[in-house]
Structure formats: structure tokens, C-alpha cells
Specification:
Structural class: mainly alpha
CATH architecture of the largest domain: Orthogonal Bundle
Order of helices and strands: HHHHHH
Helix content: 55-70%
CATH topology of the largest domain: 434 Repressor (Amino-terminal Domain)
Distance between the termini: 30 Å
Radius of gyration: 18 Å
Number of domains: 2
Number of strands: 0
Length: 113
């Protein structure tokens, strides 16, 4: 089973077109990656599945690390908050969790532990 990748979401998050992603992939790898390949990545239509060079080139084209393609894009602000909370001591994390839950009337699904 192939893991889910968020190709379409990363393209939209960066405000790119499939054509521009293909151009950036080609520039980065020194090989012609057509818009058709990007379309197949986005739509899960590659016959042999993803290849490492496809993932690396795609990640470069959308400005992220290859492993990040397996997760939905997250804004830098959200990442900065997440990193700060993760660096806190457990009691400080619990305090932040209580603040978030109070601010959202206890309906929070935030997990910072």
C-alpha cells in the first residue's frame, strides 16, 4: 500500500500551477518533467508508483522537504507555535492546552503532548 501524499494540497498552498511545478521540477533535476507527470502524481495515476526522484523534484518545486509531502501543508506560523509548545515542560504544555480549551469552549482537539 502506498502512503497518501498531498501533492494537490502543496500545489494549492504555494499558489502554483501544475505547469509551473513541472517547470521547477525540470530545472532542479536537469531532466524534462512534463505537466503530464505532475498531473499523474496529483491524481495517483502513475503506473509504477512514485519514484524517489519524483518526490525530491516535487518537494523542491513546492519549497519543502521530501518527507513533508506525506503531510498536509502547514503555515510557518503554525509550525513555529507547535515547536515552541513542544519545547515546553509538560506542565507548561498542560497549561497551554487548558488555555486553548477554554478559548474554544472545551471543544478543542489540539494535542500538544
Amino acid at each position: 500500500m502506498v502512503a497518501k501524499a498531498y501533492f494537490k494540497e502543496w500545489i494549492a498552498f504555494r499558489g502554483l500551477t501544475q505547469r509551473r511545478v513541472a517547470e521547477r521540477m525540470s530545472e532542479h533535476m536537469g531532466k524534462d518533467y512534463g505537466e503530464d507527470l505532475v498531473s499523474k502524481l496529483v491524481n495517483g495515476k502513475l503506473k509504477r508508483g512514485w519514484q524517489r526522484n519524483h518526490i525530491e523534484a516535487f518537494a523542491f518545486a513546492v519549497g519543502t522537504e521530501p518527507g513533508n509531502i506525506l503531510n498536509p501543508p502547514t503555515s510557518e506560523d503554525e509550525l513555529a507555535i507547535y515547536r515552541r509548545v513542544r519545547a515546553m515542560k509538560p506542565d507548561e504544555q498542560a497549561r497551554i492546552r487548558r488555555i486553548i480549551e477554554a478559548a474554544s469552549d472545551g471543544e478543542s482537539t489540539v494535542s500538544v503532548a
